[in-house]
Amino acid sequence: MNQKENEKILKALANGRRIAIVNLLKKRGVVSVGEIAQGIKLSFNATSKHLKVLFSADIVDKNQVGLVMFYRISASIPRTAEHIISVL
Hints:
- By secondary structure, the protein is an alpha+beta fold.
- The protein contains five helices and three strands, in the order ααβααββα.
- The protein has helices at residues 3-13, 16-28, 33-40, 44-56, 79-86; strands at 31-32, 60-65, 68-73.
- The protein has a three-stranded antiparallel beta sheet.
- A hairpin with a 2-residue loop joins β2 (60-65) and β3 (68-73).
- It is globular.
- The two termini are 22 Å apart.
């Protein structure tokens, strides 16, 4: 993994709301955007933006079922992110 990829991961995880999202996904597994927003007490749109950052850093995977988008911790999570998430 190169420095630029590590920087992207660190920036993605350097936010309290995104850490809350990761912790929620660690506990619940697969969760819809609406359930994540409710669980971290944030608007749907703001939650979606945070999830987009986590997805672009390969920290979460998404799967759409009908009109609902579900997220989970990525099966192929980068090693740097895995180490950080393990201590959260």
